[in-house]
Design brief:
149 residues; alpha/beta; five-stranded parallel sheet; 6 helices; 50% helix
Length: 149
């Protein structure tokens, strides 16, 4: 699976651990930064990852900041992106099944590396259910397109 990943300084350490974890599992991972725990702004990294997923250069994206809120907001600005902030495995599974989320957002201040591994594993393995959920995802895209006009 081709995965784009990025973080701000608050998510740097968790991102580094997840990059190693994902590569060990055989995934192709592109790290969009940041590349240190030096203070930085999250919007450019978050949007770059989201845009790459929205343009289908990557099948999935993962973003990390301290709370996950800022990355969620910026990621959902990119066309074709449905970013979901997930703190639990059950929520991660639902975000894929019901919302066909293509960007996972994690809160480094809340989610340990062990928990993040479980969340990421389930999120990557879970397919979208389609049916009524696909209809709703299509409605989200129509609303986004309407808002962009």
């Amino acid at each position: 699976m081709k995965i784009a990943i990025g973080a701000d300084h608050g998510g740097f350490e968790l991102k580094e651990s997840l990059v190693r974890f994902l590569k060990k599992k055989g995934h192709s991972v592109k790290d969009f930064g940041t590349f240190s725990n030096e203070s930085c702004d999250y919007p450019p990294v978050g949007y770059e990852v989201a845009e790459a997923v929205g343009k289908k250069r990557f099948s999935h994206g993962i973003l990390i900041c301290k709370t996950g809120i800022g990355m969620s907001i910026v990621a959902n600005k990119a066309k074709g992106v449905r970013a979901a902030l997930c703190e639990r495995v059950k929520i991660a599974r639902s975000s894929r099944e019901h919302n066909d989320a293509n960007v996972l957002v994690l809160a480094a201040n809340i989610v340990s590396f062990d928990k993040a591994k479980r969340i990421v594993d389930i999120w990557l393995k879970t397919p979208a259910l389609g049916g009524r959920h696909k209809r709703r995802v299509n409605q989200i895209e129509r609303i986004r397109n309407k808002a962009e006009r």
